[in-house]
Amino acid sequence: MVKLKVGISSCLMGDEVRFDGGHKKSAFCVDELSRHIELVRFCPEVGIGMPVPRPTIRLEQHDDVQAVVPKTGENVTSQLAAFADKVQVKVEQLSGYILCAKSPSCGIERVKLYDPETGHEQKAGMGIFAARLKEKNPALPLEEDGRLNDPHLRENFVMRVYVFSQWKEMTQKLSKHQLLQFHQRCKLLLLAHNQQRYRELGKRLGEQESIDSAFAEQYIIDVMDALSKPASRKNHTNVLQHIQGYFKADLAHERREELSDIILQYHDGILPLMSPLTLIRHYLREFPKEYLEGQWYLTPYPDDLKLRYGL
Ligand code: SF4
């Protein structure tokens, strides 16, 4: 089976490419994620020809944000943005991107931004490469290495990567039928993350007579945005109870009660999400239902990644 691809800052793979000759190896990415996903590494600073080790770069607020080497005064902003343009063909093959936090090239948020006059800093910048990457690929799931240590954010990122990979597998010229099928398979995931957005997107889709590339592009940007915040326990509970309804006619009273009880124990924080999901999946094998089997909510990514154990 062809692995899906996710981009990554080279230093997170353990490559000694940082300004000080070190790395920032991410054990989760290297040891766990790479078993299922091909991680495609890029180092923008090495990519523009800077040596290892090298003088540090910092972000400065001029008319716009610039990446400057304070030691030499060299401005590398346009080179870093051009590197993102250069690798865009490869980025288009990716279903997500993991970036190294705090870097003036790769950081997504809260990168130190300096006032060149006073030297004062505030954590308000975005790395030049990361900013260009986001601008050119607005639907691509992005995440920073540090945030992946949070089980909710980690699960959320990997789930988005797998949903986006499903989108990329569809043909370039999408029909309304394909888009409706995609929307249908996302339904429970979207409901768990943002019910209102799910309904808005469905309405927009229903009203659209024919699908053009601009509509499809905006649709997937909005879907990925709706999925970008981890689902709350309350919303998961609503979705689980909704699923439970599909087994009403199949389960005897005690088994229905048992499922209700396990869902409520999840709601109260006594059991992890995997408990009701495991039971539901068991019932689904016993009483197959095409609609539920098609829902990515039930199996968004390989179980082996163990992402829902901590939720
Ligand atoms: S943060 Fe980005 S630019 Fe810096 S070493 Fe890592 S990959 Fe290279």
TrEMBL record:
Instruction: Give the signal peptide, or none.
Output: none
- Superkingdom field: Bacteria
Q: Residue ranges of the DUF1722 domain?
A: 187-302
Protein's UniProt name: Uncharacterized conserved protein
What is the scientific name of the source organism?
A: Idiomarina loihiensis (strain ATCC BAA-735 / DSM 15497 / L2-TR)
